[in-house]
Amino acid sequence: MTGTALGAPAERREGRQKVSGTARYAAEYTVPGRVHARPVPAAVARGRVTADDTSAALALPGVLAVLTPFDAPRLAEPDDATLAVLQSPDVPHRGWCVALAVAETPETARAAARAVRVTYATEPHDTRLTEGHPGGYEPEEVSSGPGRVEHGDPDAAHAAAQVRVDVTYRVPPLHNHPMEPHASTAHFDGDRLTVHSSSQGGTTVRSVLAQLFRLPEDHITVVAEHVGGGFGSKGTPRPDVVLAALAARHVRRPVTLVYPRRYLPTVVGHRAPTVQRLRLGADPDGRLTALLHEVTTHTSRVKEFVEQAGAVSRVMYATPDLRSSHRVVPLDVPSPSWMRAPGEAPGMYALESALDELADALGMDPVELRLRNETGREPASGKPFSSRHLAECLLEGARRFGWAGRDPRPGVRREGPLLIGTGVAAATYPVQVAPSTATAEARPDGTFVVRVNAADIGTGARTVLAQIAADALGVPLDRVRTEVGHSDLPPAPLAGGSSGTASWGWAVHEACARLAAHPDEGPTVRADTTGKADADSPYARHAFGAHFAEAAVDTVTGEIRVRRMLGLFAAGRILNARTARSQFTGAMVMGLGMALTEHSTLDPAFGDFPEADLASYHVPVHADVPDLEADWIDEDDPHLNPMGSKGIGEIGIVGTAAAIGNAVHHATGIRFRELPLTPDRILAGLLSED
C-alpha cells in the first residue's frame, strides 16, 4: 500500500499467522524440559484449609510436586490481594487456589490435582446482594472519579416534577470468557525469569512479578506476542502467571499453566451484578428537571472493585438536579473486575431504558426526547465537550434505520405469532489515554521499525500502529514494521479502557514525526509522552453513538430474535476502517448476548457460579445476528492526541442491550427490567398480561 495510510482499511498484519496456526500463544511455547501445573480450587465458600493430603497425588507417576499454602515459596505481599496465591490457608471464596499440582504432562497434572484431599474448617458465608444489605457502604472513589456526584436538590426536584419515572433495573453477573483461556509459561534461568503470558499489558506483568519475587525488573522478560482476547479480564496479572512462576522456581523446570474454562468465573474476575434505581423528572416538553441514578453492587472481601454504573449519568443529558451514587456490598464472592465497558455497559442499559420509559410517559418520540436534552457541557464537571456529535448519530441513524415510519404504539405490529418492535438507545464512552514510550528506527534499506510494548489482543494494534507511523513518516505502509508484545521493548500501558491505540499511537507518532523532521538525530528516535498524555484537559472528552434495533418476539415460545441492528458512532478520526468496523460489530454482538442470553447466578449455598462453561453460559453465534451494521460519522476533534482518535473497542457494547430491551417493549407493550431477556421471562410477562 502506498500513500497516506491512516484511515485506510488495511488488513491485519498477523492475520495469516493466525489462520495458518503459526501464531503462538502463551501455552504453546515448548521450552525444553517443560512441565505442566494444575490448580486445585477451594470447594467451600469461606473458611480455612486445615490439612492438605497430597500423598495420593505424589504417588502418581510423573508428578513432580504439589504445592500447598503450608509449603509453597513465600512471595512479597502484593498490592493486588488476588495474587497472594498459596500464601495463607484462609479461603475467602469458592474457587480460590488451595493447592497446585505439577507434573510431566497436562493429563497427569489434572489427575494429581483431583487426587489432592483438602480438609477445611468452614465458616458462615454470605453471597446475596440486596439493596438494603447492612454491610453496604458508599465508596469514596470509583475508577472514573468520586463515588457520589450531586448537584442541586434532586430529591425535591423529582418530587416536584410534572412527569416522573421511578424504576429499578437489574443486571446479573457476567463473564468475559475470552477464546484463549488465561495461560502462562514460566522459566527461570538462575535468577532470570522469562514468562509467556496471555495478558493485556506485559509491562505491568513484569513490574508485578518483580515485586512479588523480589527481582530487578531487568531480570524479567514478559512475552505476550499474541493474545486470544481478554475483554478486561487480562488487564492486570491474574493468578495463572504467578502460579506458573512459583511452580517454575520450585521444580526448576519451565512450567505451563492453563486455567480450565470452568475455573475462570471464580478466578479472573467478572462483571459485578448491579441493582440500579433511576428516578427521572421532566417538564411536559420533555426537558429533564431531575436525574437520580443510584447503584448497588457487590465486591469481594479480598479487594474492592466497584462497577461504576452510575458514572454515565454524569455525562449524558442536561439536568439542573443530579445524583449519581454507588453503594457496594462486600460479600464472600470471587473478586469482580473489568469487563468490556465496565460501568458504562450496565449503566447505559438502565439509563437508556428508563429514558425510554420517560418517553412513554410523555407521549414523546424517544429520539426526540434525547435530542431535547442535549448539552454542550458535561453535567457533572461543567467542562465543555471536546466534541459531541450524539445528535448527528441519532438523526443519521434514525434516517438509515427508517425510524420515521415507526408506529409509536406498542404491541400493534404482528406477523402471525410474532410481535415486532423497534428500539433506540444512545451510547457513550470516555476518552482515556496514558503515557507511553516508543522508538522509531530508520534502516539503511529505506524501511522503518517501530517498537513499543503494546498488546495486540485481537484488535489489530500492530497494523494500526504501522499506519500511524507511515502517516507521520510520509512513507508507504509496506515500508514500516512494528514490534509489540515483548517487555524488552519500550514500556507501554496496558490495552484497556479503549486507551491502547491513543496511548501507544501518540508515542509512535511523536517518535516518527521527529525522525522524519530531524534525521540528524540519528537512526533511532525515542519518544516519551509523559507530561503530555497525562496532562489535565479543560475539555470533557468522550465518544458517542446511537443504537437502533428491531426485534421479533414469539408469543408461543417466548423467544426473541433480533432481526437487525444499526450502530452509528462519533469516535474521532477512524484510523483503520476495517479493524474499526470489526471492533464496533464485535462489541454490538457482545451487547446482544448481554441482552438476550448471557448471565450467571451465584448459588447462595455454595458461593459458586453454576454457569461455568460455554454450554451453560450462552454467548451469541452467527445465526443470532442476521443483519448487523456499524458505521461512523467523520469527527474532527483537535483536543485528543496527534491522531485525533478516540477509543472504539468498548463503545459498541454500550447501549446495545437497552436498544434491544426498548424494542422488546415496543413489540409487546411490556417493560422487562431484568437481564437477560430469556424466553421464560418473556412468557411469564406475556401470560401475566392475558
Secondary-structure blueprint:
Blueprint: H1 15-20, E1 35-41, E2 47-53, H2 55-58, E3 63-67, E4 90-91, E5 97-103, H3 106-115, E6 117-122, E7 141-142, E8 145-146, E9 149-151, H4 154-160, E10 163-171, E11 183-189, E12 192-197, H5 202-213, E13 220-223, H6 239-251, E14 255-258, H7 264-267, E15 274-282, E16 288-300, E17 322-331, H8 344-362, H9 366-372, H10 390-401, E18 414-415, E19 418-430, E20 437-442, E21 448-451, H11 461-473, E22 480-483, H12 500-517, E23 524-528, E24 542-554, E25 560-570, H13 577-596, E26 628-632, H14 656-668, H15 679-689
Parallel strand pairs: 1-14, 12-13, 16-17, 21-22, 25-26
Antiparallel strand pairs: 1-5, 2-4, 2-6, 3-5, 7-8, 9-17, 10-15, 11-12, 11-14, 15-16, 18-19, 19-24, 20-21, 20-23, 24-25
